[in-house]
Amino acid sequence: MATLRNFVPSTAESVSELLHAWNIEEPAPSFEAPVDRSPFTISGWVLSVHEATHILIDIAGRRFSSPIDIERTDVVQALSEGYEGLHDVVKCGFSIVTDIPFSDVSSFDIAVGHEDSPSWLGTFFFEEGSKVQVGREGWLFLDNDTNNSVEQYTGDIALADQLKLDWLNYIEHFSVDADQRCSKWRFLLAPGKEYILPEYYPHTSSPQSTPNQFFEIFKANPRFIYPIAELTKHKALTYWKGDTHWTDYGAYVAFTQVVSGFNLDIEAFERHTKITYTIDHSTGDLAEKLAPPPLHPKIAFNTADSTSTVTFSNHINNNGKIVIFENSSALIHSTLVIFGSSSSDSLVKPFTLLFSRVVQVHSSASVDTSILNHECPDYVLLQSNSRFILECPQVFGTYSIKSVIADKLQRLTDLEKQRLKVKVASYQFGVSHKNNFYRALSTI
């Protein structure tokens, strides 16, 4: 998460009256705060009106100072035309290293001093960068996220050779395993909406974006699906202003590509199933970070006539979530297992009308082989979001959803555990009784 450096002057005139020019170089205006106990350091340069001799900072009642005596010929060369007599102030740099850990500093006051008389400039304070950036026409996009989605889009991040090798090894081992099980499989990458709606995004795309680098690795593998062209064709419907994810309609567009990739008849499905949508107004995962959170319209899958039933859910949020759907009226009496990300929540809806049993596992394409052993699925879908490319799934065969669930459960309070236990116990575990396996995985 980026940390932003902000400044509030002591008075409106304080800086202009005291300084010709100045620059704080460390910490930078936007930076990654260190996670260790490294000491807080501030450095830069200053050209003062009254020939200040030192810089002072106050942090939580403690004062630190540094003489302004570091030679900065670069500053002189850059500003020599704007200030007469600048050759006399070549030594305009300063650096203060404190004994206070960086993590303990939320703000500090800064002053310039001449002899023993400080003149206070104002206060610097730090805050986390907003995770939302507002694009053109009010479209909201993710920002300052741990996956560096902006830098991935602009091509400022190169996939490391080891990361490429890890992905290749992971897919190779999974493919061999799936072939041995006679399971058909596909890998679906959900594009970030900035790739579908670049005209609203306040950054310039690059041919070296991480999804492009990723698909350069797997371009010869027909099992990989990145439906950017199909989603872009219907861009007004496939994503919505207030959320990072595709709409249910966008998910359905991706669904048709996966179905075709499995060599199944999408036209037969659409003849068999009545697909309708409604327009909902909702606060998405981006809009909810704003105050007040705005509502935006989105296209939602109409499940009023659905014959699919949730026969098990462990009610875990995000990673570790398992939901099972059964549908005796489905077009295909087969099992699909989805190892997906948050985008699979909308993607799973049409799949529950196509397959008689769908097991949705939130793991961002990490595969738990114990689930494959238990289900013996006819079809397997690996699904992830484009911004997660920088992290390869765990070495194939080592991922355990049970461990992820156990870690989630350990963080719950006793009351939360009791409520969760009641919710899980309410399911009848489906017609096949296979769901007892998942109840055991989610034991509290």
TrEMBL record:
Keywords, sorted A to Z: Acyltransferase, Alginate biosynthesis, Periplasm, Signal, Transferase
GO cellular component, one term: periplasmic space
Subcellular location: Periplasm
Molecular function per GO: acyltransferase activity
One of the GO biological process terms: alginic acid biosynthetic process
Pfam families to which the protein is assigned, alphabetical: ALGX
Pathway: Glycan biosynthesis; alginate biosynthesis
Entry superkingdom: Bacteria
Domain AlgX/AlgJ SGNH hydrolase-like: 132-312
Name used for this protein in its record: AlgX/AlgJ SGNH hydrolase-like domain-containing protein
Species: Pseudomonas baltica
